[in-house]
Each structure stands twice: as structure tokens, then as C-alpha cells.
Write a structure and sequence with these properties.
Blueprint: E1 7-13, E2 16-21, H1 32-47, E3 53-57, E4 62-64, H2 69-72, H3 77-83, H4 87-93, E5 99-103, E6 106-108, H5 110-117, E7 120-124, E8 128-130, H6 144-152, H7 154-163, E9 167-168, H8 169-175, E10 180-182, H9 187-199, H10 203-215, H11 221-235, H12 239-250
Parallel strand pairs: 2-3, 3-5, 4-6, 5-7, 6-8, 7-10
Antiparallel strand pairs: 1-2, 8-9
Helix pairs in contact: 1-4, 6-7, 10-11
């Protein structure tokens, strides 16, 4: 795999591309270079025919404790506008393969926003989520006010963003922010196991399901249903649809071709 300065990448199981944030000395703070490497690694996995699902995690102490404040503290409005750092987040949105976040310890500010950019989240019992930007005189800028509200509702999101308080993994699970809470010693393995299960499904169907689910956040019910139907019909042009249905009828395991 490519040599990175802020992350590590691996393929622990067939079909699974893993990205680990690797700046433990600063609790995996999301510097510009870190975000560049995360996006480039995701896009490499996206282009690889051998990868069908992506997992991203930090370490037990921190997924990512926020943006790198030292990089931003002295900047002015025009400099931040020219920097256009959130353009990279849009590239994460463009990834068609499922992204699973494995979260332990702090997922705060940009770390929480990066987690919410994932399609599914497995959290350790020690995970803590929050948008504490209010405490340093700013506000979430990478989707925190929007994705958090869509995930857990207005009143909870308003409280978290306006007080800066953290919520536990259990509270996040009860609110619908994450899929599952597991012991800290197994949170990465649980995420990889979920990724492996999804990687065994029909790849084209997986991509179109992700597209359809995400569309529900940016369109009307009618628009979402229209896309869902089109994607459903589109899959009937694939070899995998024929293989999947024939395998079901013949009571055997399907052999997906991603075609």
C-alpha cells in the first residue's frame, strides 16, 4: 500500500479496505494533510475492483478529537474561503461504496462530522460524540448542524451544538446516531465483520441502495421513490441480477461478477 504520513491503510480481508487515522499524539486531529490523505485513500479504494466496502477508524482513545485548531486559529475569513477545506468532504460524499466508521474514544467536532459522513457506525463503549465548536467561538462547518439534526432530531442536535456537551455511545445509540455499541477490544473487528458481510452481497445493488438511501435526505418522497424505482429497474440489466435470482431458485450461493 501507499506510504502515508497521517493515516495507515490495509486490506485485512478480501474486499475490505481499511483506513486508520494515525496521529495519536494529537488525538487524531483532522489537519488539512490528514483530510487530503483520507480522501485520497478512499478514492483509491473506490477505484479498486477488489474493494467493496471501506472501514475507517482511529485508536481506542480517539477516533478524531476535532479539526487541527492550530492550523485555523490565525486565519481570516478570506483565507478560510480560499482554503476551501470542505471541498474534500464533498469528495467523501461522492464515494459510492459503503463506508463504515469504527469509533472509540473522542469523536468531536470534525471527528463527529467525519463519523456522520460514514454510512454505518460501530462504536466502542468508550466512544463520545459531540460538536464543541461553540466553546471556541465558532460553529460546525463540515455538516455538523445538518447531519446531526437529520440523524437525531432538532431538539437534541440544538442542545449538543449550543452547549458543546458530549454524548456517550449508549446515548448516541438510543438517539439513532450509531448502529451498535460493543466492547472496546472488539469495535474494529465488529466493523470489519459488518463490512465483510456487505462485501459478500451483489456489488451493483449495494451501490444503488446506498445512492437511494442517501437521496432521501436531499429530495422529496416522490423524488426519492422515482430514483428508487429507476435503480430497481436498472439492476435488471445486470448479470448479477440474473445470477442472484437463478441462485435463489437453484438453492445455491450466488457468484457475483459486479456486472
Amino acid at each position: 500500500m501507499e506510504q502515508w504520513t497521517c493515516i495507515l491503510t490495509s486490506i485485512p480481508k478480501p474486499g475490505i479496505g481499511v483506513i486508520q487515522l494515525n496521529r495519536p499524539q494529537v488525538l487524531n486531529a483532522l489537519s488539512l494533510q490528514t483530510m487530503i490523505e483520507i480522501v485520497e485513500a478512499m478514492e483509491q479504494f473506490e477505484r479498486s475492483a477488489d474493494i467493496r466496502c471501506i472501514v475507517i477508524h482511529g485508536n481506542e482513545k480517539a477516533f478524531a478529537a476535532g479539526a487541527d485548531i492550530k492550523e485555523m486559529s490565525g486565519a481570516g475569513s478570506m483565507e478560510m474561503l480560499e482554503r476551501d477545506q470542505f471541498a474534500r468532504w464533498e469528495r467523501i460524499r461522492a464515494i459510492k461504496k459503503p463506508i463504515i466508521g469504527a469509533i472509540s474514544g473522542f469523536a468531536l467536532g470534525g471527528g463527529c462530522e467525519l463519523a456522520m459522513n460514514c454510512d454505518m457506525l460501530i462504536a466502542s463503549e468508550t466512544a463520545q460524540f459531540g460538536q464543541p465548536e461553540i466553546n471556541i467561538g465558532v460553529m460546525p462547518g463540515a455538516g455538523g448542524t445538518q447531519r446531526l439534526t437529520r440523524a437525531i432530531g432538532k431538539v437534541r442536535a440544538m442542545e449538543i451544538a449550543l452547549t458543546g456537551r458530549m454524548i456517550s455511545a449508549r446515548e448516541a445509540w438510543r438517539a439513532g446516531l450509531i448502529n451498535k455499541v460493543v466492547p472496546v477490544e472488539s469495535y474494529v473487528q465488529e466493523a470489519i465483520a459488518l463490512a465483510s458481510e456487505i462485501a459478500g452481497k451483489a456489488p451493483l445493488a449495494v451501490k444503488l441502495i446506498k445512492e437511494s438511501v442517501l437521496k432521501s435526505f436531499s429530495t422529496t418522497l416522490e423524488g426519492g421513490l422515482e430514483l428508487e424505482r429507476k435503480n430497481f429497474y436498472l439492476l435488471f440489466a445486470s448479470e448479477d441480477q440474473k445470477e442472484g435470482m437463478n441462485a435463489f431458485i437453484e438453492k445455491r450461493k450466488p457468484m457475483w461478477k459486479n456486472k
